[in-house]
Every structure is written in C-alpha cells, then in structure tokens.
Amino acid sequence: MESLGTNPTPPDQKAEPPADTFAVANVPNPLPTGATTTTDAEPKNRFDRFFEITRRGSTLGREFRGGIVTFVTMAYIVILNPLILGNVPDVDGNVLNPAMVGAATGLTAGVMTILFGVFARLPFAIAAGLGINSFLAVSVVGQVTWPEAMGLVVINGIIIVLLGATGARTAIFKAVPQALKAAITVGIGLFIAFIGFVDSGFVNRTPGGPPVQLGDAGSITSVPTLIFLLGLVLIGVLVARRVPGGILIGIVATTIVAIIAQAILNLGPSFEDPNGWHMTIPELPSSWVTIPDFGLVGQFDLFGAFGRIGALSATMLIFTLVFSNFFDAMGTMTGLAKNAGLAYKDGTFPRLRSAFVVEGLGAVAGGATSTSSNTVYVDSASGIGEGARSGVASLVVGVLFLLSMFLTPLTLVVPIEVGSAALVVVGAMMMGQIKEIKFSNFAVALPAFLTIVTMPLTYSIANGIGVGFISWTLVNAFSGRANKVHWLMWVVSAGFALYFVRGPIEALMAG
To answer: Do 53 and 389 form a contact (C-beta atoms < 8 A)?
Structure first.
C-alpha cells in the first residue's frame, strides 16, 4: 500500500521479483493445498511446470472450468460483432457480410487466445474489442472503405506490438503509481458490474430526467431481468459457500430455467418487446452445426486511408485507435492480474512483455480478418473468479471459440441476462482492491475516485485511466509533490489531454 509522501513503488520493490514469488490473492474458492504462497508447490509434470498450474495454486479441473466460464460469459461477441460491423455501409456503400464477420470473429478470437495462453500463460481471453468496433462502424467508415478502416487497425496493432516489444509499454506500466493501479482494478470491477446491470435490463435509460433508472420506470417488469436476479442470487450463494465451480453451476442452472421460461412464454427480442430478451433468445437450436465462411480474411488496405482522407486525418484516427487500444488493454490486464492474485507488489505480473506483445498482435490479426482490433476481455474475470490462474484456461477458451465457428447455434443458448449475473458477481470480487487506496490522502483519493467512477459513467476503461492519469499528475504536481510524479506520467497525461480533445482537432483539420 502506498504511504503518504513516499514513492508509489519503494526502492526495494522496483526490480521485478522472480516468477515464483507472487502472492496468491484472496479468491472465492480456497486453494486445495491451503498454501498462502506458491514457492512450496512442486510441478506434477512438464505440462504443469510450463503453465505453472500447481505453483499458482490451481488444478487442471479449475483451469478447464474457468476457461468454460470465461467462454460462456463472452461468447456473445460471436453474435454481437456481426451486428455491429455487418451491413454498415462504408464511404463507397459497401458492407461486411454478417455471417463472414461471425466466422472471422470466432477464428481470430480462438487463435489469439490460444497464442496468449501459450506465450503469456495467463488466464486472459482475447476477442474483438467492443469499443473499437463501434468506433469503426460509427465514426470511421463514413470517411473510408471497410478495407481501408481495417488497414488503420492493422497499423494501430503494429505500433502497439512495437511499444510492447521495445519495453516502452512496460515502462509506462511501471510508472503508474500503485494506488492508481488499484483504482483501475476497482473501476473495472464497477464497470463490468454496470455492464451486467445494463445488459440484463436491471438498469435502463430513461425517456427523460435521470440518465438511468431501475428496470422499467423503477420496477422490474420483465422475466429475463427476473432470471438475471435469480442467477445473481444463485451464483452469489454458491460463491459465498465456496462451492467448486459455483459460477459455472450457476450459469448452467439459470440457463436451464431461461430455456424453460422461454418455452412457456415464447418471449421475443427486446427491440420488439421491451420485456423480451436483450440479445440472445434461450432456445434449443434446430441445427447444431454450421460451415464458416472466411471470405473476409486478408481483406484490408494498409495505406488506402492516407490517400483518401489525407495523412493528418488518417494519423489522427490511428492515434485514437492506439490510445484506446493501448490503455484499455493495460487497465484490463492490471485488473485481471490483481484479481487472479498474480500481480507483484509493484502491480506488474508474470510475462508482462509477452502479454503486451501478443495483445498487440491481436489488434493486427483483428484488422487482417476484418473483425476490428482484438484485445484482452474484462469478461475473463468470470473465469478467474471460477479459479483459473494459468494459460491453460486460455487454451480452453481458444478451442471453444474455434468450435463456435461450427457451432454458432449453440452459442445462442445462453442469454446475456445469465452471463450478466456472473459479471456482477465478479465485479463485486474486484472491488476488494479498494482497500489498497489510501483515501485519507486526498492527493491519492481524488485521482483514484475519478478513475473508478469515470469508467462506468463513460462506459470506457481508457477514459477512466486517462482521467486518472491527468488528475494524478496535476493534483500531485501543484500540491507540492511534483518530484513524486514520474516523467512518463507527464508524457502520457499530455497524450490523454490530446486524446480527449481529438474531436475539435479533427474538425479543425477537416475544415
């Protein structure tokens, strides 16, 4: 914990500790050995030694369960990504075929998550980032073609890979004060809980007045939202009772209830019926297997946007992509590593550089397959909550994503309301990191608070990190603690300031 008036990372903790000295966090399911450290755990075989399964206090069964839970929680991206990117006309009036987007989404997520499991050996899953795919569909393809937009995503990924490979990304990560890293974890927990509340219909927009409200006009009126609440209570009880596989058991049981409710009530989608399902309708599919079409793979134009809209405008779009991608993923990995108990005292975690490089390659692969930048998913916290601690869980998620290309109907069975219940539970778990923030020191309290609340209120992890960086730098600099602010914090804060005013800058350049 950071103390008043001292460096965020004490001198004796600046060097990254060896890979076998990380502490195991307080997890909902206690370690089978009862150990509080992992230094006394001997690997059972070469596979165990490579992934450090036993050393991290896990078991193969936990890794498989965690991988399944993570996939179930984030399988919606195979359906949602085509809805966001498909059938949106670009500047020339051309669209991406939704079926092809779906196939490419499963392919890219599967391959990149497996690579992440092998090289980073962390229980994080990678898939198409929701923020960036929406940015492409709403703000970019009105100016360029889809292949040109994906070319910008590839360039963005190459830049992120270089930053990761050269150590620049790691240096920025280490310059972030420990209290701010803890705030990022708490903010992500609040953010994913808010996502769960919104996706389940527990929280809704209002026609006028406050921005959000409980259910429909302050009441819970829909069966899907009631099923979310059932899942929330069931998963919460199972986790509180430390039942092995509690999250997965809760998801399966609540999905069965959802299927029965749908068979009886025959509810439709929420865009037709406000009391309907918010994304997928839980019905047993009539067919189980589909043949994927990979026609979008390789359909990108690396430098076409520069010729169409000019170098300055294209560069500004890349700047926006890099900032969003870079800090969103950095914040997500910070929170996930802490939640998994894999973080060192300075907030770093094992195989940090490998994680940064592979995540950057996910952006390159996403652009090359027309699925938008692929990044680490905060939904991985659900598998971590189930006990996943190693890259084996990522291998499981990756294989399931590859299978999803052929079993797309099966991914529609679990409704988002059920997955949302798991997200809220995991969000509550991640809130525990708030104890690391010294709120009695207002120079720490204000930036931490702004980081935490900005993420859910702006629906962006990157925005929360940016506000936290800028406020930390300014508050500490002008309250007599300028020597405590790392010079990289100044550089990144200046970059975030530019990022936050990019709209007017783009308008000036366009004019």
So the answer is: yes
User: E strands along 123-273, which residues?
Assistant: 126-128, 203-205, 212-214
Both structure tokens of 485: 């602010």
Walk along the chain (511 residues) and give the pLDDT tens digit of each residue: 333 333 333 433 334 443 333 333 333 333 333 333 344 567 788 999 999 999 998 999 999 999 998 998 888 788 778 867 887 899 999 999 888 898 999 999 999 999 999 999 999 999 998 767 877 887 789 889 999 999 999 999 999 999 999 988 888 878 888 888 888 878 878 888 888 898 888 888 877 777 888 877 777 888 999 999 999 999 899 888 877 667 778 888 998 999 999 999 888 887 777 788 887 788 887 777 888 989 999 999 999 999 998 887 788 788 878 877 887 788 889 889 988 989 888 778 899 899 999 999 999 999 999 999 999 998 898 899 888 999 999 999 999 999 988 877 666 677 888 878 888 887 888 788 788 889 999 999 999 999 999 988 988 777 888 899 999 999 999 998 888 888 888 988 988 888 788 778 767 766 6
Q: Do the beta carbons of residue 114 and residue 399 sit within 8 Å?
A: yes
Backbone angles phi, psi at 361, to 5 degrees: -65, -30
pTM summary value: 0.72
- Rounded to an integer, what distance in angstroms lies between the CA atom of residue 251 and that of residue 232? 9
Q: How big is the CA angle at 27 (ends 202 and 180), to the nearest 5 degrees?
A: 75
- Stretch (H or E) spanning 338: helix 311-339
Give the DSSP per-residue string, 423-459: HHHHHHHHGGGGGGS-TTSHHHHHHHHHHHHHHHHHT
**Share of the chain residues as helix, strand and coil, in percent rounded to the nearest 5:** 60, 5, 35
Query: Both ends of the chain: CA-CA distance in Å?
Result: 49
